[in-house]
Amino acid sequence: MTSPIRTERHGEILVIVSDNQPVNALSAAVRQGLEAAIKEGVADASIEAMVIRCDGRTFFAGADITEFTKPPVDPLLPQVVDMIEASDKPVVAAIHGTALGGGCEVALGCHYRIAVPSAKLGTPEVKLGLLPGAGGTQRLPRVAGIKLALEMTAKGDPIPAKRAHEAGLVDRLAGEGSLEAEAIAFAREVKAARPIPRASEKPVADDPAAVETFKRENGRRFRGFDAPAANIACIEKAASGASFADGITFERQEFMRLMMGVQSAAQRHIFFAERQASKIDDVPAETSLREIKRVGVIGAGTMGGGISMNFLSAGIPVTIVEMQQDALDRGTGTMRKNYEATAAKGRMTATQVEAAMGALTPTLNFDDLGECDLIIEAVYENMDVKKDIFTRLDKIAKPGAILASNTSYLDIDEIAAVTSRPQDVVGMHFFSPANVMKLLEVVRGAKTAGDVLATVMALAKKIRKVAVVAGVTYGFIGNRMLIPRQTEATKLLLEGATPEQIDRVHVAFGMPMGPFQMADLAGVDIGWHRDPTRIENIRDALAAENRWGQKTKAGFYDYDDKRTPSNSARVAEIIDEFRKREGVTPREISDEEIVARTLYTMVNEGALILEEGKAQRASDIDVVWIYGYGWPVYRGGPMFWAQTEGLAKVVAGLEAHGFPVAKSLKDAVGAGGRLK
Ligand code: T1G
């Protein structure tokens, strides 16, 4: 098999080129090729300096994550980086695309770095539950300073080449089209310069106090995660004056500890699961896509406005329809306010705000949707209303237009059946706030065409959403799994638990909030029949007393003007009244019982969803819960977590509380295997 590494001679300069598509991951073959090429350059007296560059869209984007579960193959990346740095001839890294993780560490092992302005450099290992394990934690603070090293390693966000240049991480910026030529010229310029600058020999220059400041400013952000603290500890080691060698020893020890840990396994699982989710098993990857030049959105409420912003921000014009002028004005006004708030945070320019709003066409004329290639309805969650909308759409939408419903629960097949084009009908379930939440459930009807699905999945990536295909079932994937969680949480209240206990268990687990905190945020009155005299459950009782959640400053909790929650004596009374009415004597409920009845039941529902073919794979279910509900990524999603919890333990917990266990869950335990 040909090596992904080749060398090209330019006089006295040896250019080492990697061609390992799609992202030049530093696979074993790449590492072996790099080692051989550096040795060639060092041994050849006619070579006075070297350049390392990559073909394709990016410089090395990191170690090859697919190799992490396989036996290590020499040379390991730290050895390759050390060898580059030890070269007695200067080596220049020519960077384009994203020099990430091990890629950034290879660049740090080089003596000089030149990059095009569009390039980015980063150490995102922390997002995989890891840390830069090829010397990055010790070279980065020596080259770019402690503060930037902390930011880059503990948060994991890449920085643009310009900022890297200002920080000294990049020595020069090249023209976008002349990177190789300028890198060769740079190598020529420094070929005789001595001493050769080596990152590992530089002192850590700036203020070690930066570590404490960083910890203080970011403590909350890293709650529950192991890797950020390990990254900080490695930088702290470098800042403490420890020798480079001691720092490397510490880094290696921490890297291996994280690599063997459950959190990194979970975060690596989600990295691949997110990418796998974009693949539709029975729709060929090369399916031609429908062209989406203009999107129509029906409804300018919270969802319609948020949905519209996704397309406008991606440069896709939107026609937004409402029935009343004041509703239309309110909706577009909210969109502008949201954009201006983003601009105020420096994440958008005023020009970009105007460009986005300028691509919006508000109208009261439903027929204006006739020119749209994709039309998404985001109206009241009622089947009759949806059917009326799709009946009208069927008459005015252009042939081939994709007709989508943003319904959270309802049957897409029933909606499609009122049209003459069920093959063009699909669900696009955005999560509120639609312009923020990354998850998009793409609901395929029985007749939804393959190219419609492929088009929507590709479009999801363009609007920076993580899309997951769901089948038609009540609540699709995420909300269907929410049902047993909410049902059991309410039953537990009756049996003796309190809202704060149940929420505490969920927050301690790593959820952003518990079931009752979420109910207060979303609205206790959602789905309420609006009859205050009809009180069939605890939610009815709260809703009847206008305890609709944060918006009425009272729900399962009481809220002050700053929406700070406090336990509610009135809610405790209501619960007691219900216990008496139902003849239930409250008992002590353990946290373990809460986990079994609210989380194991979710896993069970996920297994049923898989059995019924309403999700393509177990990892898709994990992606839904990570990106739609804030399930802690370091636990890998419900189905992955169930494996780490132990499927036998989950099944035993379900059986102990009398739940019928999904067949696939039982079979998986029997086979000692995994949920697929
Ligand atoms: N290893 C293996 N495969 C990778 C990969 C990697 N590092 N990065 C991407 N892929 C695959 C990906 O699965 C997908 O495959 C295809 O490439 C395109 O990716 C020792 C230990 C580079 C910004 O964390 O952030 O270095 O689905 O769809 O949207 O210290 O990929 O097509 O079969 O994401 O254009 C550190 C991870 C590793 C970077 C491109 N590096 N990658 O985004 O394409 S750990 C990272 C990304 C490490 C060292 C440590 C993104 C991207 P398929 P894609 P994209």
TrEMBL record:
<dbReference type="InterPro" id="IPR006176">
    <property type="entry name" value="3-OHacyl-CoA_DH_NAD-bd"/>
</dbReference>
<dbReference type="Pfam" id="PF00378">
    <property type="entry name" value="ECH_1"/>
</dbReference>
<comment type="similarity">
    <text>Belongs to the enoyl-CoA hydratase/isomerase family.</text>
</comment>
<dbReference type="InterPro" id="IPR008927">
    <property type="entry name" value="6-PGluconate_DH-like_C_sf"/>
</dbReference>
<feature type="domain" description="3-hydroxyacyl-CoA dehydrogenase NAD binding">
    <location>
        <begin position="295"/>
        <end position="470"/>
    </location>
</feature>
<keyword id="KW-0442">Lipid degradation</keyword>
<dbReference type="Pfam" id="PF00725">
    <property type="entry name" value="3HCDH"/>
</dbReference>
<dbReference type="InterPro" id="IPR036291">
    <property type="entry name" value="NAD(P)-bd_dom_sf"/>
</dbReference>
<comment type="subunit">
    <text>Monomer.</text>
</comment>
<dbReference type="InterPro" id="IPR001753">
    <property type="entry name" value="Enoyl-CoA_hydra/iso"/>
</dbReference>
<keyword id="KW-0456">Lyase</keyword>
<dbReference type="InterPro" id="IPR006108">
    <property type="entry name" value="3HC_DH_C"/>
</dbReference>
<dbReference type="InterPro" id="IPR029045">
    <property type="entry name" value="ClpP/crotonase-like_dom_sf"/>
</dbReference>
<comment type="pathway">
    <text>Lipid metabolism; fatty acid beta-oxidation.</text>
</comment>
<keyword id="KW-0413">Isomerase</keyword>
<keyword id="KW-0511">Multifunctional enzyme</keyword>
<dbReference type="InterPro" id="IPR018376">
    <property type="entry name" value="Enoyl-CoA_hyd/isom_CS"/>
</dbReference>
<feature type="domain" description="3-hydroxyacyl-CoA dehydrogenase C-terminal">
    <location>
        <begin position="475"/>
        <end position="559"/>
    </location>
</feature>
<protein>
    <submittedName>
        <fullName>3-hydroxyacyl-CoA dehydrogenase NAD-binding domain-containing protein</fullName>
    </submittedName>
</protein>
<keyword id="KW-0443">Lipid metabolism</keyword>
<comment type="similarity">
    <text>In the N-terminal section; belongs to the enoyl-CoA hydratase/isomerase family.</text>
</comment>
<dbReference type="Pfam" id="PF02737">
    <property type="entry name" value="3HCDH_N"/>
</dbReference>
<keyword id="KW-0560">Oxidoreductase</keyword>
<keyword id="KW-0576">Peroxisome</keyword>
<keyword id="KW-0520">NAD</keyword>
<keyword id="KW-0276">Fatty acid metabolism</keyword>
